[in-house]
Amino acid sequence: MKPKILLLLIVFNLASAIPEFSLAVVKFAGKKIEEDIQYLCDRYPLIKKQFEILSASELRYVIRYGHDEDWYDAIFETDGQTLLLTFMEKKGLSYSLQVRFAHEATHALQFERGQIGFIRNKDGDWSAVNIDLWDEAEAFKNSLEVAGIEDLCLGKLGMFRWIYEKESYQKAAAWLQSLYPGLSIFRKNNPDAANLEAVNRFYIKKGCRLFCKAYQTAAMPQPENEAGNL
Hints:
Layout: H1 14-17, E1 27-28, H2 31-43, H3 45-55, E2 60-65, E3 74-78, E4 82-87, H4 97-112, E5 117-120, E6 126-129, H5 133-146, H6 149-152, H7 155-166, H8 169-179, H9 196-205, E7 209-211
């Protein structure tokens, strides 16, 4: 069965204005991105599964195309209320939409499992927190599942695939450390349910705030060859 995709205008008090729709529905900021994601769900089982999981969340997700002046190809971010998956329309040497969606949706699912979150600083800016090398490696691995030939000719993903297939997932993750030197090789997750409120109170006293879910041990994926040092 096709995943149900609904296009809703993003307005204030949406849930009360349209009672039959809850916030547990992925929303789209335009008709074109809706149609493009529907096409990907029809074609790629991985993307269909990712979309269905995000659609079942109690949080609000919005999928949208970005602006020409934006520097990124794709990004998973937040404004503190809505979780945003933003994609530039493909131009020139950029990855296909299916690769970028699989990658950023993986990070969104990591958010749902409590592996990563967001923190607001004193200036009101939001940034990702608790993302580690294995989170990025999982996103690269899922991107490979939907990648086309053109995608594999573009540097990072092609090299990750070559090392993964010729050597191991562990070695491919180690190579990613050269691209993301700030990411820890050790697992960094959000606080568990018993400690999340106390940790957030600590940040609030400093003028900051966490936006995340509690870490769910049972929901953690177990990628092959992850155990041990890199």
